[in-house]
Amino acid sequence: MTNPIITKTKNFKRTIKIPGDKSISHRSIILGSIAKGRTEVTNFLTGEDCICTQKAFQSLGVEIETNFHDLENPIVKVNGKGIAALRQSETEIYLGNSGTGMRLLTGLFSGLNFMTKLTGDESLSSRPMKRVIDPLSQMGAKIESSEGKAPLIIHGTNKLKGINYTSPVSSAQIKSSLLLAGLNADGVTTIIEPEKSRDHSERMLDYFGSPISYHHGSLEVSIKRLEKDLEAQLVRVPGDISSAAFFMVAAAIVENGEVELLNVGINPTRTGIIDVLKMMNVNFSIVNLREDAKEPVADIIVRSSEIKATEIGGELIPRLIDEIPVIAILAAQASGTTIIKNAEELKVKESNRIATTVNMLKQLGVTVEETIDGMIIEGLVGKAFPGGLDSHVVIDTKGDHRIAMSSDVAGLHSEKAVEI
Ligand code: S3P
User: Fold this and answer.
1) Span from the CA of 122 to the centroid of ligand 1 (angstroms)
2) Which of 134, 154, 175, 404 has its CA 20 to 30 A from that of 336?
């Protein structure tokens, strides 16, 4: 296979229907599988991560039908028979590249009375799992790991106990892992975060009728043991704002850019990118506000802009954690110096995203300084990325999809072709 090569464009006018949200797609399979009845999921994300979650539940005996023929609307139907119907998988469960899959399933499987082995690819096997193993162990879970990393062997037990857990990091994966364990634990399981992370689990658990108690915006969430099965639901998955972000930045940085992004999830715990567009003087509008499966959705229009530098940190970080590589591309086109701080979590994503983002910018010819918790980016004031001394720019993504897509966006406004 040859590497993708992106070249400069002068016109970027598109209407794009954004594929389904990854976080919500995972959760729809998980909750559909433990609920009773037929959960129908539309606009499901068919990327490898969510397919691994689908296959995981099929190997536990859940009947799941898929119809992916219409790429505009992939459909999944989950015939849930309740949580007690889940059976030990005959094989180990491979979760590919998916941190969400591994951490959420570890929580759920900790409270189910059978053994499960979870494995992943090289990147996933190097990511920290102690952050869920430790609190789950406090709840009574028995999990074997390779020094805190996958593969994980979970010796499930129905004797978990609810705990009060103050998480040292804002992570929806940790929070969701404990919430799913809490469904099978005695007493109350409470999680308190330093800053609010995405709340898709809370919203969907509520939608499926679970005993969860939380308030939008609050840093604390509690759940009790399931007394009765969750009820199957219709889930229309909103488009993933993290995918929409690439097109937003593309439209903002190219000459004559204008994109209309349809069906974008605008859950406030995910809209840090929108705040940043505002802070950086990007020309955009949000229209057609509506709600699907307890999630706010809208269409977003973004146009070429005179971008201004800003400072990004604090409570904004968990609300835009996956968008930072492409925000770095936006910042590199601004007038002035942009500072990104408090983003140390980036070091434990699919790659060390502080290092891979800084390297991407350097290859594109941007002046950038790596810091312990982020980076400082000198903007090119709208000038196309100059690249280095070679005839074209080569970006090593370290296998990280978000670095690849951010480099694609940069290629649309680069003097030299960008090879990914
Ligand atoms: C996710 C949570 C985030 C995000 C990941 C998906 C989720 O991770 O980076 O892509 O679906 O819960 P953390 O909350 O652990 O930072």
Assistant:
1) 18
2) 404
**Which tokens hold the place of 292?**
């699907």
CA-closest residue to ligand 1 atom 13: 171
The 3-state DSSP composition of the chain as helix, strand, coil percent (nearest 5) reads 35, 30, 40
Top mutation candidate among 108, 171, 345, 349 for ligand 1, by most atoms within 8 Å of CB: 171
Residue with CA closest to ligand 1 atom 5: 100
- CA distances, 79 to each of 20, 63, 238, 393 (Å): 21, 5, 22, 49
Please provide the DSSP assignment of 283-333 as one string.
EEEEEEEEEETTEEEEEEEEE----B--EE-GGGGGGTGGGHHHHHHHHHT
Whether the CB-CB separation of 107 and 132 falls below 8 Å is answered with: yes
Across 26-56, b (16+ Cβ under 10 Å) vs e yields bbbbbbbbbbbbebbbbbbbebebbbbbbbb
Strand order in the sheet with 220-224: 164-166, 188-192, 220-224, 212-214
Nearest alpha carbon to residue 50 among 70, 72, 35, 33 = 33
Does residue 197 have its Cβ closer than 6 Å to ligand 1? yes
Query: Using CA atoms, how far apart are residues 331 and 308, in angstroms rounded to an integer?
Result: 8
State whether the Cα torsion 128-134-140-143 is positive or negative. Answer: positive
Q: HSE-up of 383 (CA within 13 Å, CB side)? A: 12
What's the pLDDT tens digit per position in 237-289? 999 999 999 999 999 999 999 999 999 999 999 999 999 999 999 999 999 99
Listing from the earlier edge strand, what are the strands of the sheet with 418-419?
5-6, 418-419, 393-394
The number of the ligand 1 atom at minimal distance from the alpha carbon of 174 is: 15
> 160 C-alpha vs ligand 1 centroid, how far in Å?
24
Asked if residue 359 has its Cβ within 6 Å of ligand 1, the reply is no
d(CA 153, CA 84): 20
Distance 100 CA to ligand 1 centre (A): 6
Return the active site residues.
322
DSSP 166: E
Q: Is the shortest distance between the CB of 23 and ligand 1 below 6 Å?
A: yes
